[in-house]
Amino acid sequence: MTKMEKIKNYINGEFRNPISNKYVDNYNPSNGEIYGQIPNSSSEDVELAYSSAKSAFRQWSKTTFEYRSRILIKISELLEENLERFAEAESKDNGKPLSLARKIDIPRAASNFRFFGNAITQFASESHESVGEGAINYTLRQPIGVVGCISPWNLPLYLFTWKIAPAIAAGNCVIAKPSEVTPMTAYLLGEICNEAGLPKGVLNIVHGLGTTTGQAIVSHPDIKAISFTGGTATGAHIARVAAPMFKKLSLELGGKNPNIIFADCDYEDMLETSVRSSFTNQGQICLCGSRIFVEASIYERFKKDFVEKVKQLKVGHPSETSTDIGALVSKPHLEKVAEYIEIAKQENGKILCGGSDRVTVKNFEEGYYLAPTVIEVPTDECRVNQEEIFGPVVTIMPFNTEEEVLEMANKVKYGLSTTLWTSDLKRTMRMSNQLQSGIVWVNTWMMRDLRTPFGGVKASGVGREGGFEALRFFTDAKNVCIKY
Ligand code: NDP
After folding, report:
1. For residue 25, what are the domain limits?
2. How does pLDDT run across 157-178, given as a tens digit for each residue?
3. Residues 262 and 427: beta-carbon distance below 8 Å
4. 4 is a domain residue
5. Cα of 375 to ligand 1 centre, how many Å?
6. CB 250 less than 6 A from any atom of ligand 1
7. N or C of the chain: less Cβ packing under 10 Å?
8. pLDDT tens digits, residue range 335-348?
9. What string of DSSP letters covers 373-429?
10. Are residues 396 and 332 in the same domain?
11. Which CATH number goes with the domain that contains 464?
């Protein structure tokens, strides 16, 4: 792509300008410059995508699993072959370190296609014999039709493909919208899909603003299911729009995850992993452990060692190999995160390192950089411990008993993931049972087996992605009862 090239929608296998010919600017977070434009698509563009998806569905829904599997695996291979190009595009669009995009984002996007390409060949439905009644029931798992997939900016291609791959594997046709803030790798994906032989109209990618393009997808009466990942407030809005139309909904929303550290843990492993679970991707991962609770007997030691390690993290341009912390995704987001650091001060939080001042990176002075920030908080009740910040900011505080930390861990509106550090098996099982979260990691963080159910409870969402859960979401179950 040349500088300032306008990207296009991908509809019916073709790259098209938006009908209105209107565009929005796309910023490079590492230097604050506009480097491209993306379609500001309207409901007319969504309608065009819908017609294309609807007509593709007739054929696609009847293709064999083997045929779909071959195409999905081909997409995966092409992503791997183009890893460098995609990683560079992701890093430039999002501000994340190029090394991270190479190691995590793009390989995982490729894995998503490979995983669901294989999973669909193993997806079986149930059969129930009504013994004594002389009947057999079997369940058909049929594709839903045209479905909508809407994803956020933090792990752009990774989360986009996590929805698209199971949707098309299950025989649906898709209208997908990436975040307007990070559209680039979704745009490039269209080329790969054509090269892999994905039939026209099976996947349609419409770019634009959430409030217009996204809203047009969610409110379209014939788009039967919406898989959404994003903020809790947006999720609530989408649920309000979709519910009266009885759409199937999968909502993966915000988090405020506890990282609970007991004195009997493997200290070095915990320390190194806690730095990663706090600040990977500038803390902009819904799974980051942003509230760190440390058993009182090792609190002072942890505080000293943790802050020392965090201070060593290098904030820098995303393309530098030495960079640990790249740019935040946008100026408004940078300002939001910085404001929370100020709020922490007003609430008597003590800034142990970092702070709300923008970090200046030489030659990229207008980039959106912040130092990783650790705040010691006097109570769990404060706003920085209750509200999602979604940036390079964590809080730390001590606890005395298992009961006390369990209560604090659960006392937020969110319930996405928890990390627990202990070598006590009974405590692990006791706490895992009682923690109000969809995922519990014990002595590790963000270890992902794609077969496992993924999602949150409370304000972190409804529904589960991953493995057969995703294939169940993207199919309707129909029971057939035959009397013999
Ligand atoms: P948003 O909710 O702002 O946006 C998510 C997506 O929804 C974007 O594509 C956005 O478009 C679109 N959107 C916005 N408004 C509407 C609407 N009215 N109708 C339809 N679509 C709409 O989230 P962010 O992009 O800011 O992402 C950060 C959030 O995502 C955090 O809260 C984070 O915790 C959560 N998240 C959750 C994960 C999980 O698995 N539970 C994983 C990753 C992130 P646009 O960008 O153009 O506005």
Report:
1. 9-253+460-483
2. 999 999 999 999 999 999 999 9
3. yes
4. no
5. 26
6. no
7. C
8. 999 999 999 999 99
9. EEEE-S-TTSHHHHS---SSEEEEEEE--HHHHHHHHH-SSEESEEEEE-S-HHHHH
10. yes
11. 3.40.605.10
339 and 466 in a single domain? The answer is no
Bridge pairing between strands 257-261 and 289-295: parallel
- Reading the block at residue 110, the tokens are 């490729």
> Does 478 lie in the same domain as 349?
no
Question: Which regions of 75-214 does DSSP assign to beta strands (E)?
Answer: 127-130, 135-143, 146-150, 173-177, 203-205
Contact 210 CB / ligand 1 (< 6 Å): yes
Q: Which amino acid is at 114?
A: R
Quick one: 304 and 397 in the same domain?
Answer: yes
212 with 265, same domain: the answer is no
Q: Are residues 159 and 132 in the same domain?
A: yes
User: Percent of the chain scored above 70 by pLDDT?
Assistant: 99
Q: Whose CA is nearest to atom 12 of ligand 1?
A: 210
Model confidence band, residue 8 (pLDDT cutoffs 50, 70, 90): very high
Which ligand 1 atom sits closest to the C-alpha of 237?
18
Contact at 8 Å (CB) between 253 and 479?
Answer: no
User: Which CATH number is 296's domain given?
Assistant: 3.40.309.10
Q: Which strands sit side by side in the sheet containing 173-177, from one edge to the other?
A: 14-16, 9-11, 203-205, 173-177, 146-150, 225-229, 248-252, 461-462
Establish whether residue 453 lines the binding site of ligand 1, counting it when its CB lies within 6 angstroms of any ligand atom. Answer: no
Q: How many CB atoms lie within 10 A of CB 409?
A: 25
Q: What is the pLDDT of residues 231-289, one digit of tens each?
A: 999 999 999 999 999 999 999 999 999 999 999 999 999 999 999 999 999 999 999 99
